[in-house]
Amino acid sequence: MAVKSVIEAVREAMREEMQRDERVFVLGEDVGWRGGVFLATQGFIEEFGPERVIDMPLAEASIMGIALGASFRGMRPIPEVEFADFLWPAVNQLIGEAARVCYGTNGSVNAPVTIRIPYGGGIRGGLFHSQNVEAYFFHTPGLKVVAPCTPYDAKGLLKSAIRDNNPVVFLEHKKTYRLVRGDVPEEEYVLPIGEAEVKRPGQNITVVSYGLMVHYCLEAAEQLAAEGVADVEVVDLRTLKPLDTETVLESVKKTGKLLVVHEDNITGGVGSEIAALAADQAFDYLDAPVARVCGPDVPTMPFAQTLEDAYMPSTQKITEALRNLAAY
Amino acid sequence: MTQLTNQTDGQADGPLEEIAAGFSRPLPQGIAPEDLVDYYRRMITIRTIDERIWMMNRQGKVPIAASGQGHEAAQLGALLAAEKDGNCFHFPYYRDLSIKMGAGLTPTQVMLSFMGKEGDPYSNARQFPLQGADLAHNVIQTSNVVAAQLTHSVGYALGCKMQGDDQVIFVYFGDGASSQGETHEAMNFAGVHRLPVIFICENNGYAISVPQRMQMAIGDVANRAEGYGFPGIIVDGLDLLASYEACREAIPHARREGPVLLEMKLERLMPHTTDDDDSRYRPREEIEAVRERDPVVSFGNFMLEQGYLTEEQEEEIRAEARRAVNEATDFADAAQPPDASNLHENVYAP
Ligand SMILES: Cc1ncc(C[n+]2csc(CCOP(=O)(O)OP(=O)(O)O)c2C)c(N)n1
Ligand SMILES: [Mg+2]
Questions:
Q1: Which residues in chain B have their CB less than 8 angstroms from residue A105's CB?
Q2: Residues of chain B with pLDDT under 70
Q3: What is the topology classification, in CATH, of domain B31-331?
């Protein structure tokens, strides 16, 4: 085992998949000699050449649309969007087209495209370098949505995404890129899409989260354990779509209390669906109302430190919500 | 070497008659009289089915159809060139009945599709008629979102190139679609990488009700090709042989040197779709004048005048088309729509 960062894990996953499968290639803005704005494709153009590491014109719709067209031909493209905030021009091709290809051709054509999207805030990115975009894709049948939070998960899940025969939206939280480090095996492994993981087992309260927030949830859980307030179970969804309802429900039925945490806006977010799931299928087990700690309904976290802090869920806000649940 | 040159200069607003080469010329390269008879037969069958679809729509049996009437010659000319070449792929749009049917669908398959019945070869009636994919005939049309197909075609061409296949990709779109940002993005990338894509703009002068002069400040979409670094050529899209010749030349050029934009000037003979009433925006005289320029009529006249068909043979072709379309209509009318249990199938690929 070696300790790696999330960005290193992402890079390794792509490099290994490009080595094992000639159909895999990357395309995006500055992915070539620059190695990507976050250096996810550093060294790729040297290793794989400009045919498989394509510096695209600055036009996101074409990045996604051309990836899609190449996938119809049996290629396995990995388009990269520089920041989630710049994804919107490509949304017609992603939600409008890619998500409907298999269904709309009754299964005769599919779209094995993995679009990699650095997302998320807490980095003083302001309105246009911080956005959370997951709810839009979470809502869209035909897409898979993956949002890992550790190097181990990022590598194993990205490899699965690339091998998947469906369009996969692969969300990489920017703040985890270099901040989060962890063990990554030297040997080959993949992790199945669609499986949540209990990152910390506990008896009294379930917290469901994904991405950067999982780390804050873990911190909060440790704090409450140290204080003897509650033994909190932390469920990391890892894949948002398809949702691992089984793991979530199993945990909620055990603890009887549920907190959902995400930095995306609260209304219509992933958390709303988790809450509905608990109400629908674990109602008899609940000992308290489902609680949510999420981003408020403002467009994105603003630039000023005070405003960004006010927006972002934090360990402290999560701890508070957990205390309330524990006392209920 | 290719003979393709940018022929748009100085023809900005020229009447179509001047662009048309006319029918009094020898057969173009690679074409035998049998090809013409074969293609005339396809054209008549397609027109017959197109007309039948309108009738069935008025009877409430075809929910919606975009008519290809007026576009047949352009599409079949391209298809003929592609068939002669033998290694081409098509990304059509909703008005390309002649590409989709001409490529090899039976009247019955087409009717099943228009009536939304089980057995629709494109999507098994999940989509509007003849949308989805017909891989058996090298055709993909994922949607009817205007201009979405252009980047697909370019990506497909990129894939071919990466796989060492010298397939040439045809992509079709309207004058309205030429305004979309994705059209620009697709052409720009195809130009940068010199991909073997033939862009065919079927310019009928309207995007539903919006006339070309409100769509763009120029007379010829073909002029835009210069901005992408490849040739743009104006073609008489009402003349099957002109379309064939332009495409026959474009194919080797695309293979060797990269994209070509062919602007097929043609007419939309019918309202935009079966739901449209074109009298709200098109003067009656214009509609009548346009009907005089029917490419099916002119191709028929050409076949008779040049002696490729006798009157009796021509009538036989029509009778056979009517018979086939009648049979297809009856069959499709009696067929079942897909079972409701299909709703959940194929959301994801295995
Ligand atoms: C992105 C998008 N916007 C609007 C529409 C509705 N619409 C369908 S066809 C059409 C006009 C297209 O005109 P043109 O590209 O010239 O093709 P034509 O129908 O004339 O062959 C419009 C506005 C659509 N299908 N997709
Ligand atoms: Mg038009």
A1: 122-123, 132-133, 140, 142
A2: 1-25
A3: Rossmann fold (3.40.50)
